[in-house]
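pasting for the record
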Amino acid sequence: MVSDSESEGQGSGAAPIESLYEQDFLAIREECRRTGVLFTDPEFLPREEFLRERSKQHTNDIVWLRPSELSRPELPILVSNKNEGFDIKPGLDSWFVPAFSAIADSTALLNHVIPPDQGFSQHEQYAGIFHFRFWFGRWIEIVIDDLLPCRKGLLIYMKSASQVEFWPALLEKAYAKAKGTYELLNSWLPIDACIELTGGCPERVRDISKLLNGDKRQVDRLFMDILRANQNGNIPVVSCHPRDSANQGEQAEARRLGLEPRYVYRVTQVADLGQGRQIVRVKNCSGWTEPQWAGSWSPDSTTWANVTDSTRRELDGEAFHDGGFWIGFQDFLKYFDTIDFCHINTDLDREVVFNGRWEVALNAGGVQKGDWANYARNPQCFIQLRSPNRADPDGLCSAVISMMQRRQPASKVKGVNKVGFRVYQVDREAEELTSQFFSYRRNDGKHKAVAKTPTWQDGRETGVRVRLPAGKYCIIPSTYDVDKEGDFILRVHIEQFGEEEEESDTDTLVTESRTILDRSSPIYGGSTMGRGAQLYGRTPRGRTTPLYGSRLQLEQVAPQGSEGSYTSNH
């Protein structure tokens, strides 16, 4: 993932990962081994106050035990070598199970979130202390002890199917510490955990069933988006529409076929068998039962009749025991309502990140109608799109733009401001857009936004997928009202489809506009001497950018803290 410093071309080294409460894992472990005392976390003590409310009725029966006490006579294991992905028994809340199972399926993710420099053996320097990493606007390391809440000798929350594997329970405890308590883990969204455990860029696609009655090209594009996401190791999570009077019959039909509309499913494989035969493999990440899909492309369906045995073996080979099932893409669109993508691949694709802040009388220009002078004060983020999708009928470039702001302290989904952004196509030499650029009208339609968020709303995160011609673009994030302060993180996940269409004067894909200007300078208003209205401004050297990194903070670090949850307005 590209950091803000890399975006500015000021360095290529990875920033050090900071620790919650400044707890240094290595230093604490060394001290524990020196003294011979197992670690007990002073910031998250084994007390009733950190449990879920519904667990407190059994307070007298709950004891906090270490894994070695639970796995006797065998030695506990942090991550089993036989881990096959979704080897987890959901506990009381399962919104983070899709993310846990995605991590289990990826060695790279597993080793980043659960560093391999720890374990239960003396060789692994066991001292009762473990550390995990979460993304809350930037990567945070969280240290915990391994005391786990148990009742009658069994874990009461998340657990592995293996009696000796403990990473799910310990990762859940670290997550609870990040949120504050186990109780505060309740009722978030599956995409929240996907973002916070991978640092991925979110994209939400709603009302996918409506595509069945629309342009077939949109159906094909969505299928290719899901196929590409799956091939690149990104995480697609799907869910059904909440029950209402209009869809009761459809949900009853889905249940008869083996789907449970209350559950969340994760896409694990996608296949195009030709002749319009598009299938998707999904697995249940929420249920306490395993409904057996009985619709199209179910194990005994006649739709497999024209599929060769070798193809069938190839499709089912790696996924035979993953708890998933194949479903035809038409049924997939019919019974599911929303897809949440978490784009985590930056080996093939590219991602640029702007960490910024709106400040009163500086760059909090708002988006009021016709107020171009204030609007031009907003941060301006320039990107290059240079890799069109040759397989797309229109040959356009694709990118996902997502903006996150701080969360209101009393809400899991509300942000502190109404926010959104617009995207403008600009000339290659553009460095800054002046108020004249936005007020100028040309017959060719230039200077109008080519993409934008549907509304300016107070959700935690808002975003859009854009499909645009190759070229240079300016993204302008703003609050709805003028002079509203707040932090934001703007991320652009740029999909790469092979060779880039044009070369750039620089290797970087992103530059930052220098919009803090001397208001008395004629550059700000635009000189009209000899060449008409000045539509592009030039940056005086030595100026600073309003996109400096005022990072989102955890609540435990700052009262106005924020976790990287996701509420889209799509």
